[in-house]
Amino acid sequence: MTAKPWQPPRSLAWLQALMQPHLALDWPLAEWERVVRLSRRLRMLARLAERIDAAGIIDRVPPQARRHLVAEQRLSRWRTGSMIWVLERVATTLGEGSYPLVLLKGSAYIGQDLAIAAGRLPSDVDILVPQAHLAEALTQLKQAGWREPELDEHDRRYYYEWSHEVPPMTHPLYGMELDLHHNILPPVARIRVDADALLQRLRPSKWEAWQVLDPVDQVLHSAAHLFFDSEARDRIRDLVDLDGLLRHFADEPDFWARLPARAHTLGLTEPLALAVHYTQRWFGTPIPGDVVAQVASLGPGRLRRAWLLPLMDLILTPGEPDAKPALAQGLAANVLLIRYHWGRMPLRLLIPHLWHKMRAGAANGNTGATRPDKA
Amino acid sequence: MSSAPRSHQTLGDTDTLAFAKVLADAGFGIDVGAVSVHVRSDSKLFARQLQSVYAHFPLMDRAQWADVHLTINRASGFRRLIRPQVILQCDGRQPFEPFPANAPLPLFEWGCNWMIGQRLNDLLLLHAGAVERDGLALLLPAMPGSGKSTLTAALSLRGWRLLSDEFGAFNPDSGTFRALLKPVALKNQSIEVIRTFAPNAVFGPEFPNTRKGTVAHLAAEPDAVERRHESARPGAVVLPKWQAGSPTRWEPLTENVLFGALAFNAFNYSVLGATGFRSVVRLVRQCPGWQLVYSDLDDALATIDAAWPQVRERQLAAGQ
């Protein structure tokens, strides 16, 4: 296993300071300004702050930048605390022991004290229950004051028939949304993940009431989340998560042997291939050579890589803070949006869905600008 | 702070075309005390509006550091002909809906305050007007519609130094208040009340039909601009409440009422956690507080002035 050098795009070179915080002390003030702006937009500023703080060098950061590190660190710790509070309350609501309660994504990383848990900015809590207990869980949550959003008939059907989660719920007491899942990908997707297979390999988290997915499944879920999602722009944090997961679980027994095999079983070879490609190429994630070769042989073929990788490059590379949004990036995002929907829904569902979204978008002015907090 | 003034030239006495060019090219740095803002725009109208309400601010080059970077450009395409708009961008994102092209200033002020409220978690941001006298801060926390901005504006025009009409920006480390010297945003009847109260007060244009009705911005006085980096120690808290036809009422408040008025009305009290709690406890222990119900502005000001020597004595004694 050889660690390759970091070769991220120019706009991401500063991410190396996550691994070697002392590098940040060499940045001139103008670079600090750029990094603060860019990393805040990418939701990486608090992660940088936590790394620099943990290295004991935050006092050596120029004061103009330091105040922003401190400010974002406070925001992150508060939101993380709020999330843990919600998890405690939800565990009490759903009762302990009758069926598994599973943490997903950020909540799982925090529930295992992974290195990538520090400096997150959770605005929602992702949890999973077995589909057989979904209705029961939903009823219990509603009785405890969780509310479903008001949806039009289309969106309601979208969630309940075609989605892998119920509509995000809110609670008057907690400033967090709750995303209740019964699978990690929608049930109607061309790629169908067997949720029972996930539930058979759960592991304890640091909280008794909550479990987490098998490490291999955590990686695959994270990869599917990034590479099968509708919007991969400014999603560098997910790539950093993948790097962190691969580094953390590298020493688990059989981890590397099981990863490609499990991806094949669950039908997630393409996202895994993309995850391996980008973490290794951009962040130098140490991955055994035979795993890289195996994943490459299972993943997208040469023809598909020829158009998919350049588009992904374009989309994953964030624009500079002062740059106008690149036209090419917008076009690439649309092509991948079509790929996303193509993989997610059969055509007979997809065409009415896109038609509805287009009409709803036109009616709302379609600026996408109403929720800056969740951006 | 980190910006170099161009020979003390102020924004108000700069040629509008020259300023519009600066604004469109490198952009312009506004240092409002606790925060510096970098703004760029291709709207000449915005250049003129900025000049009117930031008249006494120095004309500065692109600052070395800014905490908030905003671009306000005119929307392109057919929009320009049918319903022209301005769009705010921050760090390559568009966080808000566009505004009509003739209202870039309210979009800037609103967007800027929103960014400040989101980002400055190094400070405890109370939702309060703040003015200074004798080195001591007078805080006016209140819910919208209580006449907080009107009273803050009136005080700032009668010898009190304006710190902010929106943020009581408390530094938990130093225990002092800092200025966030944005123009005071007055709404609806308040605009006429202050025009009558101080006929020489300098206003920007009136913007009718905003989400909050008509808005006009009051330019900060030259002295407040000059001294925007001077902090103020905690002085007193006054909860204003404007009530039509009411005689002036001045009633002392207990610590627990003051605590709620400061903490639960703040922008980031809970984000600061224990630091936020300790800061507010410290403030209510240090500051006497009153409820001020008023309808007559002059009488309200006279009441505050009459109580002030007692505040000054108390804080002087505490400081020794």
Extract low-pLDDT stretches of chain A: 362-375
Helices of chain B, by number, come to 10
Order of helices and strands of chain A: HHHEHEHHEHEEHHHHHHHH
Helices and strands of chain B: which structural class? alpha+beta
Please compute the radius of gyration of chain B using only Cα atoms. Answer: 20 Å
Number of strands of chain A: 5
Q: Using the alpha-carbon principal axes, give the shape of chain A.
A: globular
Low-confidence segments of chain B, ≥5 residues, pLDDT <50? 1-6
Give average pLDDT of chain A, whole number.
86
**Biggest chain-to-chain interface with counts:** A-B, 32 and 26 residues
Describe what this molecule looks like in 3D.
The complex is a heterodimer of chains A (375) and B (320). Chain A has 375 residues and is mainly α. Chain A has one domain. Helices cover 54% and strands 4% of the residues of chain A. In chain A, a hairpin with a 6-residue loop joins strand 4 and strand 5. The longest helix of chain A has 32 residues. Chain A is globular, with a radius of gyration of 21 Å. Chain B has 320 residues and is α+β, with helices and mostly antiparallel strands. Helices cover 33% and strands 30% of the residues of chain B. In chain B, strands 8, 9, 10, 11, 12, 16, 17 and 18 form an eight-stranded mixed beta sheet that branches. The longest helix of chain B has 23 residues. Chain B is globular and about 60 Å long.
What's this entry about, in short?
Chain A is mainly alpha-helical and 375 residues long.
SSE inventory with pairings:
The complex is a heterodimer of chains A (375) and B (320).
Chain A: H1 29-41, H2 45-54, H3 63-94, E1 102-103, H4 105-111, E2 124-128, H5 134-143, H6 153-162, E3 177-181, H7 195-199, E4 203-204, E5 211-212, H8 215-227, H9 236-249, H10 255-266, H11 269-283, H12 289-298, H13 302-316, H14 327-344, H15 347-363
Parallel strand pairs in A: 1-5, 2-3
Antiparallel strand pairs in A: 1-2, 4-5
Helix pairs in contact in A: 1-3, 2-3, 8-9, 8-10, 8-11, 9-11, 10-12, 11-12, 13-14
Chain B: E1 5-10, H1 16-24, E2 28-31, E3 36-41, H2 44-53, E4 58-60, E5 68-74, H3 79-82, E6 85-89, E7 99-100, H4 104-119, E8 124-133, E9 136-141, H5 148-156, E10 161-164, E11 167-171, E12 176-178, E13 184-187, H6 189-197, E14 207-210, E15 213-218, H7 222-226, E16 233-242, E17 249-252, H8 255-263, H9 274-286, E18 289-294, H10 297-319
Helix pairs in contact in B: 1-2, 5-6, 8-9
